[in-house]
Write a structure and sequence with these properties.
heterotrimer; A alpha/beta (242); B alpha+beta (360); C mainly alpha (268); B: 360 residues; alpha+beta; Rossmann fold; OB fold (Dihydrolipoamide Acetyltransferase, E2P); 5-stranded antiparallel sheet; C: 268 residues; mainly alpha; MetI-like fold; 13 helices; 78% helix; globular
Chain lengths: 242, 360, 268
């Protein structure tokens, strides 16, 4: 059982890591959810056990799909996801939350976590402006976000998407006064989809995942910032436990 | 005494509450004290609440001094603040967080009088009822009798045209009751408008009222002066209710000299001064000839004036010193051949006689 | 020698559960006091983000409580005294915020008063004003979750009020408004105070509805609970210190008022 569990612990992050790269987070032509568990070379049929995966909010869509496909390919396995702001998750892990795997939206938050194996960067994400379909704020480009009267939602500045947004504004020399700073990127997106704000800065993956609920305004590559997603198996994963 | 507007009450009260129906006519003139007497559930409280405006009529009308207070058919209904009806509730309902003076000043204040004048008037009312020194106290610190007087002062301070009293003596213990009822009669005598008091205690009615209305299951069964009702009750209920012989006199060492002649021995030898003596008709024994001395300390002659059948009893109206109503069984009447004009002897034990101070 | 008590003593069987209950409720507070970084407190409170969140929390909770009193007490009176059909429905709607998770309450508020909400859209179209992301929106969200506490308490108190005194006042000539103001309200005083305190405490601690409906911007609309949850991620010690402020305020208010005002309710 211990061996099988160990195999599980190794294979899943690899599977996720590999497929996460393949998923390409919007900027590549390949969509998410491609070619899952087949990317590993372990004895797939023998995998059983359950693991807890803490992952950044921006990974919600991709990881849930990957998880479903993995479980279909390996019946008897159970993956429990906990999505949230990377900074919040890092703190929870340090406080002893029962996480086996951590996928963060920025290296900084991965660095916060103490007991882990070597992280692997498996994906990259860049920023995009999301606006409600009806575009109540008449936003056409990045600089419009700095206009007075425009309601902008941003992530809290210690959260990866907040860091990314700040970098973008700094590069573009735009001063943006948001009306709200949300706890994670999903909350920021929610403010846009409900029409509470005129625009929000989120990841390209979020815009894609939201489909027709938002419209995206691309940020020029020279102004854009990206964030790397490391993934690591945590030391507290408890090898040897049944 | 403040000049008070004389009032005339004219009402045909019809109230339906579930399966209970109250239907009666009531009139009362200025200065008249009308007692509505009946058992619990007869509808007395309903009548009082309807007159006060706390309960709307289902039919009929209430007129006070020609003003219509309630007339469902005409769509007229004045709520209590718009009626000039003073109410003394059985539980007094003094406002616990206000001092006595402010309680009494409530009425004038509600009518727009400024605080100083209202308090002045309130103090005068309290003085009139001999509770002036209680002005600064809180209701919780008052005895039953004091609270009753304060409640009365509070109602009178509104200068009402009609005064309603709900079982005014019921909340008092026997000793206080006797003292208070005398004073009450005096205070009520000073009120120019009609007073209507509801009670289940026939003694209260007899002592305080000029006229009694006997109420049973929502209907008046008899009305008249206390004496008339007692002498000629139309129903068993009224007879039992109102059947008591009441005498006034002066007591000394267990013997009471009655105002109307004769004397009665009572059990309480400590009682002295003016007293009221009550003897139930069923407590008097009739003899056709003078009996040998027995334990009954009261023995006196009389003549039968009338006999009235009351269900399983016969009530004799006997004249003498004093005259009395006496209840006997029908067989007894037959055996003794009791009839009008017959001379008889009446006897009653001193212990069967109730006596208490007369404060009137 | 057996311990015999005359009169009304406490059944011995009730003591252990009561003790467990007390310890359970006290323990988190005690733990906080024990683990506090007392030396760093002053610097902490000097931080302008902290002081603005604290001030805003206190101000908005008080404003929400005032609004709750203004609208909630008459509402409670109507629920207690009127007999019209459909009142039960109103009562259910009034108590709904009590059973809804706060975030759901925030969503509901947004649907009603947000920029494109049922009523909110007219505010925007006619006045160019939207509630979310403002201090007013904050008070609205807090009032929504806190007012039901006051309404429920006050309604119960109105139901139990002594109608006899109100009738007596009416016969003395007092108008309905006077009776309400001078007899009924003072009569429910202790219950009203208890309800107000509960309402204030609830408004102070609100988190879900405020961030969902009103967002959170440091220095403008960020309140203590939001700041604490964020601090937990970056600076757990700060979170502990901030938590202590809220607990301390709550304890002071609750202890001070309970004794003084609720004693009359027990003895009357």
């Amino acid at each position: 059982m211990a061996v099988r569990t160990r195999l599980l612990f190794v294979s899943v992050p690899l599977a996720l890591a590999l497929t996460g790269a393949l998923a390409g987070c919007g900027s590549s032509s390949k969509g998410p959810g491609k070619d899952t568990g087949g990317g590993t070379s372990t004895g797939a049929a023998n995998l059983t056990g359950s693991i807890n995966v803490f992952a950044a909010a921006s990974l919600t869509g991709a990881f849930t799909t990957i998880g479903d496909q993995f479980k279909a390919a390996h019946p008897g396995t159970k993956i429990t996801f906990n999505f949230g702001a990377s900074s919040a998750l890092a703190t929870q892990i340090n406080q002893g939350a029962p996480a086996d795997v951590f996928a963060s939206a920025a290296p900084k938050n991965m660095d916060q976590v103490k007991d882990k194996n070597t992280p692997t960067t498996f994906a990259t994400n860049t920023a995009e402006i999301a606006i409600p379909p009806s575009n109540p704020g008449h936003i056409t480009q990045l600089s419009d976000l700095g206009k007075s009267g425009v309601k902008v939602a941003l992530c809290q500045d210690q959260v990866p998407c907040g860091v990314v947004a700040a970098t973008v504004f700094s590069k573009a020399h735009v001063t943006v006064k948001p009306v709200t700073r949300e706890a994670d990127v999903k909350s920021t997106l929610a403010k846009v989809t409900t029409g509470a704000v005129d625009a929000g800065v989120v990841y390209v993956t979020d815009v894609k995942a939201a489909g027709s609920k938002v419209k995206g305004i691309t940020i020029p590559d020279n102004l854009n910032a990206s964030t790397d997603y490391p993934i690591a198996v945590l030391a507290a994963a408890g090898f040897g436990k049944p | 005494m403040n000049p008070q507007v004389a009032g005339e009450l004219d009402a045909a009260v019809e109230v339906e509450r579930g399966s209970f129906r109250l239907d009666l006519d009531v009139q009362a003139g200025p200065g008249e004290i009308l007692a509505v007497l009946g058992p619990n559930g007869a509808g007395k409280t309903t009548l009082l609440r309807a007159l006060a405006g706390l309960l709307p009529l289902s039919g009929g009308y209430v007129r006070l001094d020609g003003t219509v207070l309630d007339d469902p058919a005409a769509g007229v209904y004045l709520d209590p603040p718009r009626r000039r009806v003073g109410v003394v509730f059985q539980d007094y309902r003094l406002f616990p967080r206000m001092r006595v003076l402010d309680n009494v000043a409530c009425g004038p204040r509600s009518r727009g009088v400024d605080r100083a004048s209202a308090r002045h008037a309130a103090q005068q009312w309290l003085d009139r009822l001999d509770v002036g020194e209680l002005a600064r106290r809180r209701p919780g610190q008052l005895s039953g009798g004091q609270a009753q007087r304060v409640a009365l002062a509070r109602a009178l301070a509104t200068e009402p045209r009609l005064l309603l009293l709900d079982e005014p003596l019921a909340a008092l213990d026997a000793r206080t009751r006797a003292t208070v009822q005398g004073e009450l009669r005096e205070h009520l005598a000073g009120f120019a408008g009609p007073t209507l008091l509801v009670t289940h205690d026939p003694l209260e009615a007899l002592l305080l009222a000029d006229r009694i209305m006997a109420l049973e299951a929502g209907r008046i069964v008899q009305q008249g002066s206390p004496h008339d009702i007692a002498a000629r009750p139309v129903t068993d209920y009224v007879a039992t209710l109102v059947g008591v012989n009441l005498y006034a006199g002066v007591a000394t060492g267990g013997r009471v000299e009655l105002d109307d002649g004769g004397a009665i021995m009572i059990g309480d030898t400590a009682l002295a001064g003016r007293v009221l003596v009550a003897v139930r008709p069923s407590a008097i024994t009739v003899y056709t000839s003078r009996p040998d001395p027995g334990s009954a300390r009261n023995l006196w002659p009389g003549r039968i004036d009338a006999l009235a059948p009351l269900g399983d009893r016969i009530r004799l109206s006997v004249s003498g010193s004093p005259g009395a109503l006496v209840d006997v069984t029908a067989p007894a009447v037959a055996e003794l051949s009791l009839a009008r004009g017959r001379d008889v002897w009446l006897a009653t034990k001193a212990t069967e006689v109730d006596a208490y101070p007369d404060g009137r | 020698m057996s311990r015999r008590r005359t009169g009304a003593g406490v059944p011995a069987l009730l003591v252990p559960p009561a003790a467990v209950g007390a310890v359970f409720l006290l323990l988190p507070t005690i733990a906080l006091l024990v683990r506090m970084p007392w030396s760093g407190l002053r610097d902490l409170y000097a931080d302008s983000r902290v002081s603005s969140a604290l001030t805003l929390s206190l101000q908005s909770a008080t404003a929400a409580t005032a609004a709750s009193l203004l609208f909630g007490v008459p509402l409670a009176w109507m629920l207690a005294r009127l007999r019209i059909r459909g009142l039960g429905l109103i009562r259910a709607a009034v108590t709904m915020p009590l059973v809804l998770p706060p975030v759901v309450g925030g969503v509901a508020l947004f649907l009603a008063l947000g920029r494109f909400g049922v009523v909110g859209r007219y505010l925007d179209q006619w006045f160019g004003f939207t509630l979310p992301f403002t201090k007013y929106g904050l008070v609205v969200a807090e009032t929504f979750v806190a007012m039901p506490f006051l309404v429920i308490t006050a309604e119960g108190a109105f139901r139990a009020a002594d109608r006899g005194l109100e009738e007596a006042a009416a016969t003395l000539g007092a108008s309905r408004l006077t009776v309400f103001w001078r007899i009924t309200l003072p009569g429910i005083g202790p219950s009203l105070v208890a309800g107000t305190v509960l309402c204030w405490a609830r408004a102070l601690g609100e988190f879900g509805a405020t961030i969902t409906f009103n967002g959170s911007l440091p220095g403008h609309t960020e309140v203590m609970p939001t700041l604490i949850s964020l601090a937990l991620e970056t600076n757990p010690e700060q979170a502990e210190a901030l938590s202590l402020v809220l607990i301390g305020i709550a304890l002071v208010i609750l202890t001070a008022l309970r004794e003084q005002w609720l004693r009359p309710a027990v003895s009357s």
